[in-house]
Structure formats: C-alpha cells, structure tokens
Amino acid sequence: MDTTRLIIVAVGGQGNLLASRVLGEAALLAGVPVRMSEIHGMAQRGGVVESAIVFGDAESTIISDGEADVLVGFEPSETLRAVNKCNSGTVAITNLSPVPPFTVAIGKGVYPELDKLRELIRAKTSKLIAFDAVELAKEAGNVLAVNMVLVGALIQTGILPLSAENVKETIRTKTKKAFTDVNLKAFDLGFSAAEKA
Amino acid sequence: MHKLLTEDPGQKMLLLGNEAIARGAIEAGVAFATTYPGTPSSEISLNLFQMSQESDLYFEYSTNEKVSLEVAAAAANSGVRTMCMMKHVGLNVAADPLMTLAYVGVTGGMVILTADDPFMFSSQNEQDNRYYGKLSGLPILEPSSVEEAKNMIPYAFDLSEKLKEPVLFRTTTRINHSTGIVTLGEMKPRVTKGDFVKNPMNYVTVPAVSRNLHVKLLENIEKALEIADKSEYNFTKGTGKLGIICNGVSYSYAVDGVKDLGIEDKVSILRIGFSHPMPENLIVNFLKGCEKVLIMEEGEPYMEEAVKAFAQEAGLTLPIKGKSEELFSRLYEFDPAMVRERIAKYFDVPCKPTVAADTSDVPEIPQRPPNLCAGCSHRATYYAVKKAAEGMETIYPTDIGCYTLGFLPPLGMGDFLVCMGSSVSTSCGFSKATDKKVISFIGDSTFFHSGITGLINAVYNNHNFTLVILDNGTTAMTGHQPNPGVDMSNFNLSGYGRVSIEEVVKGIGVEHLTIIKPYKLRKSIEAIKEALNYKGVSVIISQEMCTLYARSLKQLKDRSYYVSDKCKNHRDCINEIACPAFNLEGEKVTIDPVACVGCMVCAQICPENAILPIKKKTG
Hints:
The complex is a heterodimer of chains A (197) and B (619). Chain A has helices at residues 16-30, 76-81, 102-105, 114-124, 133-140, 146-156, 164-174, 180-196; strands spanning 4-11, 34-39, 48-55, 70-73, 91-95, 127-131. With 197 residues, chain A is α/β, with parallel strands linked by helices. Chain A is globular, with a radius of gyration of 16 Å. Chain B has 4 domains: 3-230, Rossmann fold (3-Layer(aba) Sandwich); 234-347, Rossmann fold (3-Layer(aba) Sandwich), CATH 3.40.50.920; 377-486 and 498-552, Thiamin diphosphate (ThDP)-binding fold, Pyr/PP domains (Rossmann fold, 3-Layer(aba) Sandwich), CATH 3.40.50; 561-613, Alpha-Beta Plaits, CATH 3.30.70. In chain B, helix 12 packs across helix 13. Strand 2 (34-39) of chain A pairs antiparallel with strand 8 (178-183) of chain B, so a sheet runs across the interface.
C-alpha cells in the first residue's frame, strides 16, 4: 500500500491530539496500517503541538522536512512555521483564525499578515485550502470543534486512504457522546468548505 | 473498565507506546509497580495507577527513583513480578541501588524501564542509558516499535526470571510517544503475594558476601550473552552484502530507507533488540557475510564500540562506520530522510534528495515558547520575590518543574540548574563562595524528591540563603501526579498518609519559616523581605494550588478581569508579569476572559487600578 504522510500542527488546547486519534482509529477501522507520533509534553503550557501520522506501508512514525503529503494547521502562523515539512506537491489546509503567541503581546515579534501568509504557503505547495474554521465550529455549536472542521476539510481532499463515512463512524463511536452531533456537523461544514475552496 | 484490562486476545487496539508498555506489563502478570513520574515515561505509570484502582495490582508513586527502585527490589525479592519505571535521568538517582541489586539479583521477574529522551524534548540532558547495562552488568532490551514494545515486556519478565536478575528496558521518546496498532495477547494471572526467604550470605552485601556475588553476576552475564546470541529480538532481515546494524527507532528508518532506495536485494539489516550483553557470535557471523557495515544508533556509539571490538578479535578488516562527521551524529535524534541519505552515501547508491519548501522568504514568525499558565501562582511568587529583593545582588538557583519556566523574561528568575533537588544544595555552595544574596526555588514534589537532604545540610552547616518552596499541591509538569504532600481525597482515594512540608521544615530545624499566599502581593512582599534579611537558612512556603489542577478539580472560582478605560498604557501588566491572558489589540491592552482565572495579580500592580472584575450577568 502506498504511504501517505500527514502533519498536523496546532497550539496546545486546540484539540489536535483528538483529531489525530480519530484519524488513527478510522484507519484501524478501515484496515489501513497507521503509525503516529506526537510531542505533547508542554501542550498545556501554551506551546506548539505537532502530530505526524503515516498511513500505509512504512515503519517510521515521524516525517522529515519536505516529506508531508498533507499539512493541516489549526493556527495560521503555525501552518506557516511548519511549511518546511512541505514540498511542491503538498496540499496545505489552514484555519485562518489566529491565536497570537504571547510573545507578540510583549513586543517580541510581529504576527504575519494573513494575506501574505496565504500567498507564501500557496507559492510553496500544490494547493492551499484556507478558511475560518473557528467560525464554522461556532456554527456547528461549539468553538472547540475546530479540530473536527479541519478533519472534515482534510477528508474532502481525498488524499488520505479514508472515506468520509469511515471517519464519521469513528467520530460517532470514539468521541464523547455529548459532543457527537456537534462534531459531525463540524465535520460536514469543514468538508463543504474544502469543496468550495 | 480500563481499556488496557480488556480480556480479548487478538483484538486490535490503537495504543500510545506508553499504553502498549503498560498493557505488556499486565499481560506479563505484573503485580507490583513503582515510579517517580518523568516525561517521556509518565503515561506508563498513569495507566498502571488507574488500573490499580480497579484490580489487585499494587502501584505506588514513590518519593524519588531511588526509593522507587528499592521498594520494587524488595517486592521482586519476595518473588512478585515487579516493574519500576522512570525517565533516563531518574536512573541516575536510582543508580546506587541498581548497581548492587545487580549483584543480589531477584527471585520474581523485575523490569526496570528507563525512558531516554534524544533531542531533549523535555529533559536536561540526552544521556544514553544503554551504558547502565554495561556499568551494572544487567541485560538490556530495546524495542523498535509500539507493538514490539508491548510484546517485549513479557519476554523481559521471563528473561529476568531465567537469569534471576532485573532487566533494563530502554525506550526513547519516539517509542513512548508514538502510537500504533497493537494486537492484545493473553493476560497472565497476577500473583500479588510472595515470600522473602532469608539468606544473608546472598542478601546482606558486606564485602565478604559481595565478593561472591560479583562472581555470580559475571556468570549471569555469560548466560545472558548465550541468550542474546539466540534471542528472537536480535534478528537479520535481507541477505545482501551491504550490512546495517541498528537498534530502536533507527531500525524503522533503516527499513524505510532501504525500501525507498530500492536496494533491498543488496542490503542485510541486523536489528539489535537485546543489546546488553551485545550478541557477539551473531554479530561476528553477520560481519563475515558483509563487505561493509553501517552502524545506525541514536546517541552514543554504544553498539559501534562493541562491533568494532568483535571484528578486531575475529580478525575481520571490513569497513565499519557509524558516528562520524559525514554519517551519524551523537547529537539529537534521527529522521527517515536523513537516514536514507546517509545509507545512500555510505553504500554509494543514488538517492533522489527530498526538496523541502524553501523558507528563505518567510518572514520571522513570532516564537511560541511554553510559558507559565495564565494565573499560575508561580508567576505571582516570582514577582513578589523579585520586588522584595530589589536593590540586592542576587543569585537564583532553581529546580525542575513547571516553575523552571520562570527563568524566561520578563521574570528572569532562575540562574542555575543541574538536576532534581540541586536548587537547595547549590545554594549552600553559592552562599559560601560568593557574597551575593542567594534565593532558591523548588516545587513541592521536587522538595520531597531530593530537596530535604540539601536543607538538612544547610541547617547543619549553617549556610545563609532563602529557600522558596513553591507548593502548588501537585506534580504539575508531568501531568498532576500526587506527591507526599497532596491530599489524596482529591483523587477520591483513601488510606494514604499526608506529609506537611511545614512540619518537615520545622523538624529539620529551620528557624525562620514564613508561609505566604502569593496572590496577596503586598503582604507576600513584606513577608519575603523579612525572610531575606534573616541571617542563616530561611524558608518561605508559597501555597497556592496549580490553576490547571484546580480547574480539573472544579475548585477554581473563575472570575475574569478586564482592562477598563482607566488604562493609561503603562503596560506594567505585560512588561513585568507577562501573563499569557494578555493580548495587544492594536495599541490597547486586553485580557482574554477565557484564559483569565482571576488571580488578581495584574490588578494589584496596575498603577491606575484599571484592571477590574467582569461583573457577572444577573438573571
């Protein structure tokens, strides 16, 4: 089976690890070999959380620079920071709602302009899907569903060897019951946002 | 029921490496487990802690790794299957019992897990603990994947019982924190009680006894060598003349690299999973079938040294390379593309390089370093100490925990740190060797771990410094594990004792002890000033629960604050305490009401009293 490599970057608290978990469980359900790795020691202290997920026949659990087939960023400046994981064939998906690092508040850095940011990512990849996932999460009923909005957009691209039904079944069985409906709606909203992009 | 207690052999489960290891221990019938938490090992013990609450497994968080290993050693010498886990530097703390436990041995299976951290994702060094195998004489097992980690644990217990020695199980972060599909196996029943059979000529390590025990240890190493030579965990893949010897995660990168380069028919890979003692016969036979060999291991040239020595002894002169400037570094961790490229270079085969996106035109993106949380009580304490010490020439030894982050600007509180507990003992040295005012910081869990002995030393030798104990009621950094000072009813657990830091400090004989509530800034600053002026050892205990922990216990009275129109943009709030709840919207300072926990520290330092509570909507 061909190998597909996915990088997800987010800020601690954005639900990146749950998103990875859902994709991993969906792969298990579909009989797709999957391996993942994550660095999450400082996740609750406001740092960056990065997950690497490798689908298909490969032994490695991490992804080298330039070797991601898809990059999903939950926060625009983090998507840009992770662009070194991409090559000219990579598809990038990003939320456009910023969570400025606190270094910006204390004057140690300037948050990149969103238009410029999009232009940069677009120029370095084969395709960029960019939209405000926070808006769609709110529309789905909970701002915390940003992760499922982006999972929806990711599945729409068809790059991963996972079907929408498969992932939705995993959301139904593996995420908290109280959030299932919101999560599914968030998934659908993300899916259609990517269709329009 | 805890998912890792599922009785369904053959079921496939998606597990984190640390969950897989915990499951492996359960399948092996582990009955007794001890730890001191440390990343990247922490989720192993967390899962065992949870499972102990719904089974007859005994689990304890011990005060430190040395204690943990000694508790476990007694259980293992009572015939009970025992596991003791820690991060790599934890084994330094436990090295004293480790070295002589190797002489004494065990009667029940014992696995000592050390989680190494190449690249230092969350550690103070990246030492390679395979050398502890060489140093102690104990066998070492190293898995290459999550699934293998699960399967290797029962093997480790069997090996331990066969040799009557503890077995070191060495992982790296990329095993602990990777996730993979694991097939559940049968669970061996737990035997929770054993017996200790007296035999002082084996167990009481006076010189006359130890001289015999060392002989026994060397014999055991010979036995282990025979097993290693035939172990299923030391295996060869492929039959080519180009040899690769690798271990741990580098095996995955080697397999992928060889496949990507399309040279599977030219290469043979020897994977070493049983790495102490190194399987000499197996390696010599492998070398004999190769034209040249590449040794691939993160960290130190542990295998390389052994392999080269074996080759010399066998009179083999083929090229063998590993660590060198153009091949592999002793620094940090490997990655698949780097390994692929080095294989191609060494074996002189074509490799299409990966072209990563050119980032030279990307403007500098503001950094997102980890930071003390919004409302963290450590921030309040640091600010208060800084104010109280204004005008003094100070040295701030610090220690290991979330509060280490206080060394970052703008707080800048933290000048020296080497290991757990070092804040207290290095204060003794700094206060004697310099004329500066020494003020050190240690957390509650770290104080119990290894701060107490340093404080006894300070009182006994009459040193002159102020120790601030940051008591946030939990072991926060590693995920809110309990410690001896914690109220265990927070975990809905009974039957535990509780040790008061205050009573310990008094009992040691510290004559100047102050307790502060750090959110009350003015009072705290006054009290700290007094402690700083005391000549001798003064201790300040700063008590305030970790905000993340309080929130998880639903004990946080969330009352958010906002910046009112009275703000004249002095920005003391941002410039002096830099709480991450603050944002700049254009030129205006704002507070994120979701992040703000209402600690009121910023409200107390605002020169205009412009920071006010958000009035709760009524009705």
